[in-house]
Amino acid sequence: MKRLRSSVMDIKAFLQCKKLRRSHRLEAKENSGTQTEKMKLGSLGHFSVLPLELKFFILRYLTVEDLSILTITSKAMRNLIEGYRVLMPLIPSDLMKRLHITKTSQAFPHDKQKAFLDTFYRLGLLTKRSTCLYATRDRLKFVNEILTKMMCNNSDCDNLTQCMSLACFGKFLHTVIAGWDDSECQRTYDAIAHHTCLLKNVKLVINSKPGTHVQTEHEVRTFLRRVILDHCQSIVDRAFWLGRILKPWPMVHQARILFLLYGPEINGEIQWYEFCVSTPVNPEQSAKHFGELANAVQILHGYRREWTEDDIISILDELTNSPEEWMAENVAHLFILCGDVITSKMLISKAINGRTVELSTITTSFCVVCVKNSFSLSYVLGMIHNIIGAMDKPKDRLHYLNSLMDMFRELILDLHEFSDQEDGRENDMYYMVTALSEFTKKIVVLAFKNMLTS
Ligand SMILES: [Zn+2]
């Protein structure tokens, strides 16, 4: 084992002794007495009588799956397959080339994409099995060699968005490291980050004004998603890998990276200012804009080992103020999708700190988001309940409720005064007034509850 470790990827390890060239026929004659015995006792059975070249020649006719299964039949067979794997390129160069998109090629249909991913899953399995006795360091070295060959920068790739190379590498990587413990996975992330310009690029992006390095931003997002995050099999797995990506950075940068990963993107350009200047025009756009971001926040929130509720609230606070303050409706929408627990906690912390105006803005926005997306307004009443419950003095509670109604009035007057029929947002007034009337209906029912049920 020691010997294998020290000579990983070195063919000498598999050619145990360097024989002089001589006739196999004469050799066979010499050893004829012991041949049958050898076959019986030999770790490869009858296969062991063949010279190495012939063994490798036969292996060429086997599929990756067959090779992969052979590696788990015996130690000797695994060594043989590993020797073969080291000599023959694991991934044929024409296959690697076909993964990229050139000026003349077209995007891959869905079934083709799946076939590529399946191939890399099988290659990953073969690598995992045949290198199972190697030190993690050596296995990672091999994985990085594959990555170098598959990077779009090292090929004639013209369309990173539709290219399959990184996704296939991600599939390969996650298959090789499946079942590794957390510290080994951390080493994997470090090794890959160190091997590529990942950390340098992340640093460049988060230390610059959003949108300054459009291409680098797109590359970082694509790399992290396709190689690290997209192939996670479970929520815990994804939370773990998100942690590896985010944890080294301060909170303000973590929020920026989250947006970099899951914020809206159009034609490879991250829409950093979208939530500061505009609101979604319909439920489909809302889901597209906030779905992935909210999902990521929820995943982190569920991973208590590394993230406290206060961490999540800080991230949300940074996120909704980056690069500038988001529009209240967008904040409200993200909160709703992040789930009741996070939202309540966030609102209660504002209530305790006396941020009444902010609370009334968010509450009115909750109503608008509910009306726009056909969610039940009972959600809003539940949140108001939580907010009032967190306020100590009855005076503060009344102040909040009054400022809530005042906020509706202000927003409607603003819309009336500033709305421009030309900009295609004429529905905003409708939604706002509907939000107010629907909300009022709920309150009226509460006020006259006794008379409505008897
Ligand atoms: Zn490519």
TrEMBL record:
Residue spans crossing the bilayer: none
SUPFAM superfamilies, sorted: F-box domain
Recorded superkingdom: Eukaryota
InterPro entries: ARM_FBXO47, F-box-like_dom_sf, F-box_dom, FBXO47
F-box domain segment(s): 44-90
Protein name per Swiss-Prot or TrEMBL: F-box domain-containing protein
